Amino acid sequence: MMSIRYKFFLAFSVLAALICSLAFSGFRGIAASGDLVVRLYDGPLMGINHARTAHAALNEARLLVTPGLGDSVPAETAIKFQALLTEITENLKIVRDRVKNADVAAALAKAEDRIRDWSDTELQLFRPTSDHLMMVPAAFSVTQKSNSAATALDDLVETVAAYGFEYRMEAEAAVADARAIVLALAIATTLVGIMLAINFSYSMSKPIFEAMQVAERVAAGNFTDLISSRRRDELGRLLRSLAAMQSHLKARADEDYAMMAKLDAALNNMKLGVCMFGVDNRLMLWE
Q1: Rounded Cα–Cα distance for residues 237 and 230 (Å)
Q2: Taking Cα atoms as reference points, which of 99, 118, 116 lies closest to residue 40?
Q3: What is the structure's pLDDT at 132?
Q4: 30 has pLDDT over 50
Q5: Domains and CATH numbers, the chain
Q6: Cα torsion for 158, 163, 169, 171, to the nearest 10°?
Q7: Which long-range contacts (CB under 8 A, 24 or more apart) does 204-210 make?
Q8: How many CB atoms lie within 10 A of CB 94?
Q9: For position 88, what pLDDT does the model report?
Q10: DSSP 8-class letter at 25
Q11: How far apart are CA 157 and CA 68, in angstroms?
């Protein structure tokens, strides 16, 4: 059987391993949650923000140049229109870099194609031909392409928002799983600690209590207890030592009892002899 010191070492090693696992799982869960928050901000939230910014810039550009202006488009309007197109392009590029999703990529490609088609049509108002005349596209064509670009960008915003919601649900599920793992490890650690405490308290207290009772009865002069133990640890050695001590004390007590019995018998014989001698003397004097 294992020694008590090794039992304690094994028990505390098991508890330490469980506590370390609990701490590692908690640290891992916290780190994963923090990473999810960062990725949620850098991915879906930034994608939604820049998609909406691109949509706002598109609406501003649509209001900036209206069909049917002819050659009355000022130079500063053309510069501002080009700046808005650049802003739209940059925002859509950020959406592509931040959001890695097939549905978002498809919606983004569609929006870029529709915006490019609309912007090329609008830019014809600012590009003079060889005879220095402005090419004015049909108003219904510009309106149709403008609405198509706005619709495609609306779809992109909704697709990115849907991806953000799905990502949020996945993040919540991951956090719930991490919380469940930490809770399970905490419960397991508690149960193992309770079982080890009960096992050790019973395993230690029972032989110690028996040894105390034997020692008290031996101290009171009772040597009739049968002490037996199959334990091979320190408590088993203690009980076997108590058994040997009780056996030696019982043998000594038996020897003392036998000697006292002999002394009592000798004293009784001496008293009987004295009595007989006194009777004989009285008889002789009487005669």
Answers
A1: 9
A2: 99
A3: 47
A4: yes
A5: 4-196 (1.20.120)
A6: -140
A7: 204/4, 204/235, 207/231, 207/235, 207/236, 207/238, 207/239, 208/235, 210/239
A8: 16
A9: 92
A10: H
A11: 30
* Other beta carbons less than 10 A from residue 1's beta carbon: 11
Q: Rounded to 5 degrees, what angle do the CA atoms 70, 75, 79 make?
A: 115
Those residues whose C-beta lies under 8 Å from the C-beta of residue 167, and which sit 6 or more positions away, are 39, 40, 43, 44
H or E stretch including 132? none
State the first-to-last Cα distance of the chain, in angstroms, to the nearest integer: 85
pLDDT tens-place string over residues 152-173: 999 999 999 898 888 888 888 8
Closest CA relative to residue 81, chosen from 49, 127, 46: 127
CB atoms within 10 A of CB 261: 10
d(CA 87, CA 50): 10
Q: Which burial class, exposed, middle or buried, applies to 61 when counting CB atoms under 10 A from its CB (0-12, 13-18, 19+)?
A: buried
Task: Read off the tokens for 216.
Answer: 């008290």
Looking at residue 44, what DSSP letter applies? I
Three-state SS letters, 200-245: HHHHHHHHHHHHHHHHHHHHCCCCCCCCCCCCCCHHHHHHHHHHHH
Across the chain, mean pLDDT equals 78
User: How does 141-176 read in b/e, with b if 16+ C-beta sit within 10 Å?
Assistant: ebeebbebbbebbebbbebbeebbeebeeebeeeee
Query: Average of pLDDT values for 93-117?
Result: 91
* pLDDT computed for residue 2 by the predictor: 59
